[in-house]
Fold these 4 entries.
Entry 1:
Amino acid sequence: MNTHEARLDALRKELARRGLDGFVIPISDEHLSEYVGGYAQRLAWLTGFGGSAGTAVVLTDPGQDKGAAMFVDGRYTLQVREQVDGRFWNYESVPQTTIAAWLGEHAPEGAKIGYDAWLHGKGWVEAASRALDDRKGTLVAVDSNPIDAVWQDRPEPSAAPAIVHDTAHAGRSSQEKRAEVGEWLTARKLDGAVISALDSLAWLFNIRGSDVERTPVALGFAIVNADGTADLFMPEAKLPAEVRAHLGNAVRIFPREAFVTSLAGLKDKRVAVDPERSVQAIFAALTDAGAQIVELRDPCVLAKAIKNPVEQAGHRAAQARDGVAVSRFLKWLGEAAPKGAETELSASAYLHARREETGLLRDLSFDTISGAGPHAAIPHYRVDEDSNLQIAPNSVYLVDSGGQYPDGTTDITRTVWIGPDEAPAEVKDRFTRVLKGHIALARAVFPAGTAGSQLDSFARQFLWQAGLDYAHGTGHGVGSFLSVHEGPQRIAKSAGGQPGTEQALMAGMILSNEPGYYKSGEYGIRIENLVLVEEREIAGAEGPFLGFETLTFVPIDRQLVAQELLTAEETAWWNAYHARVREVLAPQLSGDDLAWLDDQCQPL
């Protein structure tokens, strides 16, 4: 089965053998992670899709309309068409349509549609079940995933050992954090909480791992009790002596497979479970056990998002270190790329090497988006040997990248004009509108209680004035040597939730500021810095106010700026920002690198 057509055919035969009329395949694992280990990359194996968000539905009978659909959001509209064969798959756009709605329309009357309860959340299962009701169909939880039955060389889950995340970087001990969760449980008259999100597990126990590429987490589950003790479900081989000593006697260790057995033993216990971060299988096991399920947000989520002073200082140090690596890369790019010999892959490799030179890089924080020309118009493009393009002279090049360091996680995007000629007026106009939006958000001051959706239009307003927009959020949360995409904070158009359900931004949260513009088939633009939410003192303010401290310091390409479009305040921001870039980076540079930095940081 070396082709995706053969794999699709094999899956359909397996579904028929099981008496199923269809099956749903998400990019997911048992923890509802955004990025998953190789063993859980079922969608990529089946379809060839390399994005981090997407779902497929396969009907056993292809019928008149292929009987297979790929669901992706606006970030992947172009990428899915490049990677997934349209002869066998329909392309569906989310949120314009949903998997549940598609099943309600395309599933056969009385269909049995399979799903893996360890890969889907409770809300999705309820919505899909309702959609199938209209066709007298049923959603069937499979005993084992049918893709695993036909994926003959599927890798095993990682056996890499966990490591201690020292309090010198974490700022608070695991004992303190568990005691705080215990108090949270006691205040709500709860006996325990299920912790299934991997970044919550890492944060709570001050451990890290290498089980998921680009995200330093270890596979496992936990149940935290009201007295602050906890049961950690993780293979013994993954917990060497120093990690066990770090965890202490208040954390009991069990094999990962004992997790379901432990859930079955919670009869009559009041247990908190996060419906956004826990799979349907956990709810089913607790229901079968007779536990009293209380649906609440994982108590680690908000505490993890609000970085303590030690974590904030660590982020600043990581950003300063990373900024030197990215600046050295940009200097090289400006000299080498106009000669026409560099490619998306060679540029990505050069940048990775500069980060390695810091001596503290543990991993990238995500696969580098190295987009030349038309590939820059694919927001989450990932280059490989087949897609690799030359970085052509007189074109736009976009690089979105980041590093995982023990003291912080970085994420930065820079868009560069590759000469030798001057950039076209249209490209300068679009870049400057994106820049103006970036500056507006960076300068925003807002009352406490403001949600990210209320700030999103700050970054879009100048594009909107020209009838333009972009199909992704403006900002996502960022972890502390953890996930580069961290909730619950975000800056994006409102998802249409009920008033009060969206997370307010709070001092200590870290987010990205990354407006963009994409002209399909031609070029793409994005400018991204990370920012820290901080308290702002305003004379006469009637209540507490907040603003942003910029954390990322790397020059922005002045060749792409149409200076006549900037106001005096925006020009002042640019000049102050680049003065700070020089202040942060110059002590770490010398010779030609420092001369380049001085040139890039000259005021407009």
Note: The first strand starts at residue 22 and ends at 26.
Entry 2:
Amino acid sequence: MSTYEDRLKALRAQLVRVALDGFVVPLTDEHMSEYVGAYAQRLAWLTGFQGSAGSAVVLPEEAAIFVDGRYTLQVREQVDGAHWQYESVPQTSVAAWLGEHVPAGGRIGYDPWLHTRAWVKAAGEALAERGAELVAVDTNPVDAVWPDRPAPSDAKLVVHEDRYAGQSAAEKRQAMADWLVAKHADAAVLSALDSLAWTFNIRGKDVERTPVALAYAIVHADATADLYVAPEKIDEAVVQHLGNAVRVHDRADFAGALADFAGKTVVADPERAVAAIFEALEAGGANILALRDPAVLPKAVKNPVEIAGHKAAQARDGAALSRFLHWIATEAPKGGVDELGAAAKLEAFRKETGLLEDLSFDTISGAGPNGAVVHYRVEERTNRPIETGSFYLVDSGGQYRDGTTDVTRTIAIGTPSEEMKRRFTLVLKGHIALGRAQFPKGTRGGQLDVLARQFLWAEGLDYAHGTGHGVGSFLSVHEGPQRIATFGGGDEPLQPGMILSNEPGYYKTGEYGIRIENLVLVEPRDVPGAEREMLGFETLTFAPIDRNAIATEMLTGEERAWLDAYHARVLEIVGPQLEGGALDWLKAACAPL
């Protein structure tokens, strides 16, 4: 198993042994997570792909890997094209590809704990048109040939205190119970890890960079709940925190418990609960209501305590980032700084706060052409020096008890070309346009996406990722349901209390990447004479935007005023946390245009 070719051969041999003609390998876990524990990194083990979203299909004579526009370059660098076809999503899909490539009469396996019911239906229909069959497996064949597969984490759960959560777990369960009664339902299945963490005010260390614990839960209409988690992960403090209304069971007992709802009405989320959960409920005689997990929306709409905590986290994180920006502005032009060293230095500045629990994702530290790889992940093999005359893109964030941060800055090392400055300024203009937006209550994120792209579009340019994603409260750095995107979501009405990113970009393959990202809070907006309730964004992230990369003549008076006001606020919030050379640098970096 020393090469990815060996692993592919081993999987094909296993498929022959279990009488399958193919198998689908998604990058997720049994909780439909975006970021997964090491034990669930089947796609990475099989192919070498290190991105956070993708799927693969293995047939006897061909294999394909499916990624979206964020990973177009990365997948070609990490996955051997001699053995894998590269397929782009949403231009195609696993189901569509199978419908064209599966042999007539073929049996294609899938793990029902790793797919939604909708995916199973679509793939099954596509195969049926070819006279082929989709087959659920009891044992994942990748696991059968993965000799050193890690065990799931046994890290202890920790209590997320009410002073950070702003609402007790009992209050959250009662709100869910009231919702269930209104829906005439008896219980709701919670399988998304961030929903469990939020509902029970617990956190964990089972997924790198995301403070969640591997568990399932069933919340009942009487406000009691059953929590399914490995016994060794629970200590007395957590037991006391959960209280008598939460019954704790072994995680291994969850599937069997789904058979106990005969004649009862159970809510299960078709986007977040895997097909196996629906199948078990149906087999047990439950009446299923396919509705969104009742934790999703209240989790997304932050309460006043969470908002205050997030602002405190942003203030300290902005100071750490500003210290880093001063350091790189001083050291990178001298030479000798590379991507790995810069990422390590930024993490060190965050650790100096004394409050960092973890990074919120692996830092994207991209110099020159590596910055054009949207979700680039630096490693020894790809590590580049940060050179004069280039752009350096750093996308990073921290996990603090009181908030989760995510911020991107693009830094001109030396003097950028006129093209680089112009395209940086187009991205900045889009960032400002979105940040200044006012919109009626009920507006969807997808309706705002064009504000950030308009200036790039005017010059025939674009970027292949969404403009904004939701962010959790000491939880997932990517949190739904809100998004600012024209594809893959963006149809959730924005509500006061939601936190999103504002991150337009531009990427020139082989040369450089640009992205400017702040987090923003949806807030009510008082508009004189307005005939509708209006909303807008409050910017939460505070760190300088590189003045040396801006073609100032391209900015309107309003845009210049926005940037000057933003930098004045950065100086006000971050300045008192700095001293000496870093403070002097910040004052210059935040000076009016």
Note: The domain at 4-145 is CATH 3.40.350.10 (Creatine Amidinohydrolase; Chain A, domain 1).
Entry 3:
Amino acid sequence: MTWNVKWKRNQKVVSRVMNTASAVALMAGVAAGAAYAQDNQETEEKADQSAFQFEEIVTVGTRSQGRSALSSPAPIDVISGRDFESQADNDISNLLRTVVPSYNVSAQPISDASTFVRPASLRGLAADHTLVLLNNKRRHRSAVINFYTAGESNGAQGPDISVFPTIALKQVEVLRDGAAAQYGSDAIAGVINFRLKDDTEAGSIEAKVGSTYEGDGDNLLISANKGFELGSDGFINISASYGESDPTDRSVQTAAAAEAASLGFSDVPNPAQVWGTPRVHYDFKSVVNMGVNISDTTRFYAFGNYAKKKATNGLYHRPVLSRDGVYTFGENAAIIDLDGDGGETCPTVAANDLAGLQGLSANCWSLFKVYPGGFTPSLTGTVTDYSMVAGVEGELDNGLTYDISASYGRNKTGFIVDSYNASYGPDSATEMSAGAFVQNETNLNADFTYPVAMDSLADDLMVAFGLEYRREEFESIAGHLHSYSVGPYGELGFGGSSQGYAGVNAAAAGSASRSNIAAYLDLEAQVTDSLLLTGAVRWEDFDGFGSTTNTKLAARWDVTDTVGLRGSFSTGFRAPTPGQANVRNISSLLDAGNITLSGIVPPTDPLAVSVGGTELQPETSTSFTVGTVMSLGDIDLTVDYFDITIDDRISLSPFFDVDSPDFANLRYYFNDFKTNTKGIDVVATYSVEMGNGTTSFSLAGNWTSTKVKESASLDPLRIRTIEDGTPAIRGNFTINHVNDKWRALVRANHFGSYYNGHISFTDMVPGAEMTFDLEVGYNVTENVELVVGASNIFNNFPDEVPDEGLPMTTLLGTDALFDTKSAWGAKYPEFSPMGINGGTYYVRVRYAF
């Protein structure tokens, strides 16, 4: 049978299915005596599961008691926790990409730290232009700065949203509107608010295993959630998950490695250059959410998370025949005479002379003796993230509400590089710490609301005001000496630092911090039954560059009972992070087909100042949104147009050639350019009784266009990646049917064409693609559900990297030609928004109690 043949190719996955299913069954049996099916849980299981729900009450974008997404003056997507489960992936960034078309994230192979904490884009802007909240409280950003990505997020330092277990989420609210006047720095593109479950009794245990159609990327995820009563009037809800996955490989053999193998060199890696998703050794995530009433009008709450992930990804291959300063000096092998005090003289050996290399005496050292067929360094990252929020909220007799809270968050990303420092010759370490980056943030908030009765209004004027203190600290921790230094053989021309990824230099280690204070006033008035007006003003003062004041006005007018108009205008800002202003880094980059060492230094470093560096200033923005909301019987439809202009955008500068013993060129962060981003979001849902159940239809589409309006220094390649690095058109259409025991989901995903802007793949424009997802669930018992599904069921791939050499005159101003596919081994464009793994499938068992 075909089914059996398919599963024989994936015996590891089958074994995991059986083992995890048995584990779930065992846990279910132990808990069965005390567990029972909750009525509200059954309702949730059988409810309409469309990706965008309008009737849900949202708390983001308003400081009143909350309103439905349809009645909001700004566009808000509400995604249930169950929507995240109906997918093959385990990463929240990928899950959001599937259900929110204006949200883009791509694979980041060979992107150094960005491979482990991938940047994401909302409404065509950078990863740090979106503010992330957890239970309405600001999240700390990741320690990873995205040095080597393409597109709008190159140089960004955004939050890491992959640290939450999906089973912990009650719902996710995506505010697609500028909100810096309401929430402060970063909320230029919008706000994503993750709301945690607060059940007091219900719980569930899940196990999911999956793989790709190619038979690699086997993955496992085990999750659990349980709510408990806390005292007589409180709750504590605990969630945790554990995952791991094998790497994927979508590569072809490089020309350099193939040549070495044809000459008889042994131990040539095949493929020499691996392009795919990294191996995840482990990925543990946990969240605790709790609240308890202190009195009839006062409540204490606290929540937090702890997560730790370890993953490994390959770096650029070092070919034995042509890596200058490592294996070769020109056409000859790079050889060290270890007996340089008058002993035996080492011969001159051509790099392709296998017999000559094999005949080298003991005192004549070459890296060939360690890695005879070339080597591919690898980078292992360990990301540790934790946070804690605690506060007291309540209401006084006069209607004044208060929320006093404190939070602390920390993200640490440490690196181990498996590589070689050729300048140390035979004494080099091969596995060494490459240092770490740490981000610490502390927030203190005091938020108040007060209803003011006004006869001229249809309802009370809601006045909100508050204060905030925030402190950010970015720390660099030095790596092993061999990871960044130049050894004794550097004077002979051997390259220093660990190949592929240079560690944090001891001279660059240290910390930098910045604090700010803020005050805001927010007004919300239901002027008439059909007209809602809101306004906000926020003042913030930062160490280093002074203060900024931002405003927002929004309105919603219900023209009829079924049609409403809404719009907003706002100013915003994004403060440069202490990391962007102070980080130092050295890494290997591809420059017109050649690997070179490149450094990133603070903009106030003397080397940066010599080529134009100055102290960073905030980005500033103006934006407006206008749209319509229609309820046409069972059909809900929203259409919103947005326009965002950002001045003094912060990014990495072009490369500057400098005279430095550590690197050939450098970049630094600078305020350089202005962009205008505009687009249209369309969301529609429809639900109907069909057969023995309910069928829901949801359509979500986005068109976004970004143009660089002004720039003093950006090169044409960088401008092209900012403007076209993500698809202009994205969308999905979902059909979901639920009856008594069965449910089925079918989803179509559209990815428009885009520019794959990496230095090694110039002028490649992959075409538009369509993928389809399918999931079927069956309630085996009242408490146990079995689910099988697949994403990209037709195993579609993006356009392949071309085989022929490409002229680079268009953007880089050179006549160089090289075979892009075999030169670096990438079969598919590395920044593909649909991914490069093809089809994936999964099996999930869920026990609810």
Note: DSSP finds 14 helices and 39 strands in the chain.
Entry 4:
Amino acid sequence: MSSFDLAEAATTGTHLRQTVAGAGSTRAAAQRLADFFRTSLVDGQGHRACAQVSVFLGEFGAGGWEFGAGDDGPQTARVGGPGAEVGAADAEVGGPGAAYDSSSLLRLLRGSGLWPADDASAGEIDVVLLHPAGGRTDQSDEASTPSAPSTSEQAGRLLAFGGPVRAGQWFAVTLLVDEELPPDVTEFFRPVAHSTRLALLSAGASSAEDRLEAAGALTASMEMLVARRAAQLQSAVAELRSTSARLRRSEDELRRRETELREEAAVVELLQEVGGALAAELDLDTLVQHASDAATRLAGAAFGAFFYNVLGETGESYLLYVISGVDRSVFDKFPMPRNTQVFEPTFRGLGVVRSDDITTDPRYGHNVPHHGMPEGHLPVRSYLAVPVVSHGTVLGGFFFGHPEPGRFTERHERLVTGVASQTAVALQNAQTYRREREAAMELQRRLLPTLPKVDGIDTTSRYLPAARSRGAGGDWTDLIPLRDGEVALVIGDVMGKGVRAAAIMGQIRTACRAYAQLGLAPSEVLEQLSVIVDDIAPGCITTCAYGVLDRHRSRLRLAVAGHLPPVLRDREGSVSFLDEEIGPPLGVGRRAYPEQEVHLAPGARLLLYTDGLVERRSRPIDEGLHQLRKLLAGPVGEIEADCDSWLDALAGGQHDDDIAMLYLYRPEDAARRTLTVSRDYPPVSGAVPDARDLVSRTLRAWGLAHLANDLMLVTDEIVANAVRHARTPLRVELRRSADRVVLEVTDSSTHQPRLIVSRPEEFGHRGIFLVDKIATRWGTRMIDGGKVVWAEVSTA
């Protein structure tokens, strides 16, 4: 009932006429109408909507209104008398007494003007909505008097409609429902009222004129309802259109605001990203490119550039630039713009230049030879330039262009100015870092040696500063040729970065070379270095691995002070870490360091390295050592290529610490193979001629007879000295390599031969001058239980 609409009003009229077809009398038609309303009208849940339906029919005669009441003939009843209701269908819902009696309903109808007091043949069909406050059939007339009818603007539960059927005859229908009905329901029931009248006329003895007039009234009512609903629909459509337009405007506004908020969020995120990146970046080239890319995005420019000043090694200033938004090659053929009238104010730090159309600027186009943009230059109308200034010094400038005019706003200017301020601080940090790094690396380059060529071995070294650090560190390598054909291998690492670490490293390296030249054993060298470190840099952790390679005996003596162990690959390809004996780092005072001895035959390879090669923040050191072992156990070849490939595999440009490497290979080719002959002699005078004979025969067998006389003289002096001072058997060893011959005499005496000028009356100390004159190099090496005196003669 509450959702009764135009379509239901039309279909209800059709059903009403079908319901009364064949009724035979108006009274029978009224009863059918009452039953129809009772059963056909439902609520939203499909239940019967009407608690009571009453249909009244009356004719106005000489005695007033007469109501038909029974099948046995007409009866006369006054308004409100018993039996006044011709057709009724009482509700079962609501319990006893839920319905109104006929008298109460007629009083309501009369009070509402829906039932005339006298003949009203000229009356019209009407529909009213009433809201009775009480009045049950068991109440007295006074107590049951219903309230006045409700107005059309009030909701009610009693719907009534009626009017003249024909001249002198009247009908009325009341529908009592269990829900509040909206006021506009009367509008839809007006055609139903006309359809009820037409149905009553079609069931009784009515004239064609009456039926035609009733059909016309029904049509007029439907047309009026349709017109009214159409007007309401048009109004609703107009309102809907207006609402839709407002919604669209609201949606557009929301989308615009959402876009603005997204753009603002993107700007904030970009500014945060730029600030963090610039604060953390120390590489100058990366920094300026990042700043230029970010500023170009913030400005909305078609392309941007950042020109900046740097200082060369000799202190001269020169200009560099980066490009954003387009390929750098676009600007390769153009000169630097510093001296033009448009660009000069920015490089002088005079302030921001923003132009909606730079081609209309009075400073534009005055500089020869182009008088404007050079041929081939990207078109520029909108122009924005922001200087980058720190403490009154112009470090560079941002320049942005766009081919359309008016693209850069005050907001763009503020954003780029903010980036320029951050860039100025970052540039200062990066330039300070670069100066410190270059100073430390230059110091380290000056301190690190160039590896000498050593016969019988191939060597190479690498030094890489950390990918992201404040300068070089204290890593170093060294290769020190010693007397008697031995060579010292050194690698070390001083804790820290920068000039201090490099300076400490230089002092330690110098001391190490000095101790090596004294012929000290590896353990003794580290013992002395520990004292030095404790003196020059107390508390500074320093690690070192020091080894002495005897190429003739293929023997490596090694001592390690807190350093990662060297890696040895033998000629068969087996890989091992030399970690049997490792002592504490240097700088813990004087203490003995353990020493180990390994065989290093031709075909073997040895790698000494610092921890930067195998240790990274994202990789445990054990994993790095395992990977290093796999690399050395794999295919190997030319030593330079080996070093490069291993660095790529283990560091890949992402190393957190400095890397130093010393790589040694003993070739197996016959031309470089060492030949050795040795004999043991008792410490007696007869050992001297026997040793001379051994040297002479060996040199002739080697095709070096031209060296025999010289080397026999050297043998005389050294063996004679050993016989004079030794108490145990002595050993004579002769070794030949590609370009030299080495004589070694080992004895148990600690007395070392020295160049001492004798007085004329003295007999001794003259033979050693003969050795010094003949030998290319000579020296003494102390060993456990004695010494080795050696002399080297070139085969040339």
Note: The longest strand covers residues 169-181.
